[in-house]
Amino acid sequence: MTQRYRAIIFALAATMWMGLLEERPTGQTLPRVLYLTHSAGFAHSVLPFSEEVLLALGRSDNAFHIDITRDAAILTADVLSRYDVVVFFTTGELPLNPQQQEDFLAFIRSGGGFVGIHSATDTFYDWSAYGELLGGYFDNHPWRQNVTVKVENPAHPITKHLSESFRISDEIYQFKNWTRENVNVLLSLDISSVDVDSPQVHRTDNDFALAWTKSYGAGRMFYTALGHEEVVWRDDRFQKLVVNGILWAAGKPQTLATGDKWQLLFDGETTQGWRGYKRDTIPNGWQAINGTLTRVSQAGDILTTGKYENFELSFEWRLESKGNSGVFFRVSEEGAVVWHSGPEFQLLHNAGHRDGNDPITSAGSNYAIHPPVADVTRPIGTWNTSRLIVNQGQVEHWMNGFHLLSYEINSPDWQERVNASKFVDLPLYGQTPSGHIGIQDHGDPVSFRNVMIRVID
User: What percent of the chain has pLDDT over 90?
Assistant: First the structure.
């Protein structure tokens, strides 16, 4: 993420960022949203900005929890089961195998919500069931200009904030394999505001819908063709349209499954539940200070007293300038040091530390094995939120709402990467089926808070 986009978001919603934290998973019932921005075709330059806008909008009114991924390959039945709504701003033939495609449709048929933004219709041309779900496919954009949009259904919950018509400047799509008999049109183009005799116009009925809804089994689908331009994502009317669309698609948000019980690994007041590596007690260099677990002086790495195999770990962390630390999992004390057995979720001040020069050792990486898709760290001295999910060898890294990477322990890709790393001669590395959660003392001040774990059965 560039400094430019950070600056835009601070200007757009400065108050939203104050204390902007991942919603704590304590059984709340706000809709859970996954936003996919995978470009297998044309990559829209507005995508990073759209990600930040949706993060801010979801939290500004406590409207929904949102995670963001740029990798469609993570859309498995297990991942989909965590969410109420999936949002696509995508292009091209995404890497979903036949089972994933069926799981995706089953998710919606059984009551899940789906929202498509702009080029979501420029996606999966080779998968006709997706076109049926969405209601049609992209068929060129004859206009990129200021146009008049008609609000055809001003009473609908998605468009109730809009007047009968409005002006907006955007890239305007037309669609094929689309008919209004199959959808509920919310917005359409006022053709008096464009040149319908343009050679790029393919439709002969002059029917250019720009937003609609559709039922799919027990699920709901909402699509808007708007959203190409950054100025549109800044527009309050469009922001409200997307938020309303997400909430409408969610219907009644699900509650967390009965078995999804979170437990604190740090109570905010004591260091109970932690000890030093190969020690019975925690070193004095780690202390509970003002609700944080903080490394205050030379101490060494620490571990949870308990062991975990399949779990979701949620934590917030803060470093000082040039700081370095990490969180390890499935740690065995048979090795000489923590990293001889436990893979590491790297924590780093990217701009101030040499490891930040290479993505494979930067913040959020599976240290020296898998790089994150982007640098999504927040300014130094502020809190970052992270999630580490480990389930039967499938591992996911998330930070500040973004999916950073996924991998499978002992897969061919994993083994190839390990063989090319400094871990090649460590027989314990990543091989412990159940182990401790570890925190690294790399010689730098680091603080943690809201450290929680959910055991996956």
Answer: 90
Residue 143 Cα to chain centre, angstroms: 32
Distance CA(120)–CA(253), nearest Å, equals 23
Within 8 A by CB and 6+ apart from 187, the residues are 149, 150, 151, 152, 159, 209, 210, 211, 212, 224, 226
**409-419 tens-digit pLDDT:** 999 999 999 99
Question: Residues in the chain, how many?
Answer: 457
Q: Which residues 6+ apart lie within 8 Å of 118 measured at CB? A: 44, 89, 171, 173, 224, 225, 226, 227, 228
Joined together, the tokens standing for residue 213 give 């809804």
- What pLDDT does residue 260 have? 56
Cβ contacts of 209 within 8 Å, gap of 6 or more: 175, 178, 180, 183, 185, 187, 188, 189, 225
The amino acid that residue 156 corresponds to is H
- Given the structure tokens 């959020």, which residue do they identify? 364
In this structure, are strands 262-264 and 394-399 parallel, antiparallel, or unpaired? unpaired
Where do runs of H (alpha helix) occur along 198-235?
Answer: 230-234
13 vs 345: CA distance, rounded Å = 30
| Other Cβ atoms closer than 10 A to 62 | 10
With beta carbons less than 8 A apart as the criterion, state whether 130 and 209 touch: no
DSSP line for 351-390: TTSGGGGSGGGSTTSBTTTB--SS--PPPTTS-EEEEEEE
Angle at 43 between CA 127 and CA 227, to 5 degrees: 90
Half-sphere exposure of 431 (CA within 13 A, CB side): 12
Pull the structure tokens for residue 226: 């708007």
The pTM of the whole model exceeds 0.85: yes
**Residues paired with residue 36 on neighbouring β-strands, in sequence order:** 69, 88
Backbone angles phi, psi at 375, to 5 degrees: -90, 110
The pLDDT value given to residue 11: 40
Neighbours of 166 (CB within 10 A): 16
Q: Which of 254, 4, 214, 6 is nearest to 114 (CA)?
A: 214
User: How far is Cα 45 from Cα 116, in angstroms, rounded to an integer?
Assistant: 17
Q: How far apart are CA 328 and CA 322, in angstroms?
A: 20
Query: 47-60 vs 236-250: helix axis angle to the nearest 10?
Result: 70
Pairing of strands 85-88, 113-117: parallel
